[in-house]
Amino acid sequence: MSGAWPKAWKTSTGGLSERADTVLIADRVSKSYATPRGDLRILTDVSLSLERGAAIAIMGPSGSGKSTLLYILGALDTPSSGSVSLDGADPFGLDEAAQAAFRNRHIGFVFQDHSLLPQCSVLENVLSPTLVAPAAERAGREDEARARALLEQVGLCDRLEHRPAELSGGEKQRAALARALIRNPVLLLCDEPTGNLDRGSADTVADLLLELHAARQTILIVVTHSAALAGKFPVRYEMTGGTLVRQEA
Ligand SMILES: Nc1ncnc2c1ncn2[C@@H]1O[C@H](COP(=O)(O)OP(=O)(O)OP(=O)(O)O)[C@@H](O)[C@H]1O
Ligand SMILES: [Mg+2]
């Protein structure tokens, strides 16, 4: 693996002041749900500030709020209070359509269950984010060439016409990774990307993830229960009691 890790990143439970070189800022993000037994608090004043090129892993017990935080950072869920900004933009200030376009343009997601479209080929799946992009941002044959190049990078150039059902679990996750990167996102969010894989496939996907990240200098945040996957990251956090706690190396 190559590429220099950024020198600075930080979390806190207080507020943050914005820095010019920081592209993802979560400031005092809290999340609670109203339940019949009162408010259920999941996240409490989580603050996180990451520069381009940062890579972090988040671990923590089931139900501790890891996915909740990841979805808020990716504007798939809204915080009860606090704010998120990516490259200075506030995704929660946008209407639904603009927010979807923002996610499509700037954020890549990889989920545990790959979420590939079953009726589409691998190549079509990887291209799908470009098809819903605004016309002005589509590049036709160039998009296809990039999709093919990405699929080659993840070792799937001989599976382009396969449907997802015709792929192994590890191959599906590699296709999902290529799809997440097709629009060159600034932020790549992965929720248990190796959770369904055997150790060998998990290692392959994890190494690919880090290689692609190092080459592209996205901000990479991976939520995982796997100590093996988390161990590949230079910076690790534990989600506990609704807050993020940085783990010593
Ligand atoms: N709509 C909802 N209403 C009430 N509680 C919810 C709702 N959605 C999620 N929760 C609760 O939020 C908590 C955090 O869920 P989350 O999915 O973020 O956990 P997690 O850390 O990702 O767990 P896992 O490791 O099992 O994936 C859980 O206890 C869950 O029950
Ligand atoms: Mg989860």
Task: List the main descriptive attributes of the protein structure presented here.
249 residues, alpha/beta, Rossmann fold, 4-stranded antiparallel β-sheet, 31% helix, binds adenosine-5'-triphosphate
Structural features, described:
This protein is α/β, with parallel strands linked by helices. The chain has a domain of 172 residues: Rossmann fold, CATH 3.40.50.300. 31% of the residues lie in helices and 27% in strands. It is built from seven helices and ten strands. It has a six-stranded mixed β-sheet. The longest helix is centred in the C-terminal third of the chain and has 18 residues. It is globular. The two termini are 19 Å apart. The site of magnesium ion has 3 residues, from helix 1.
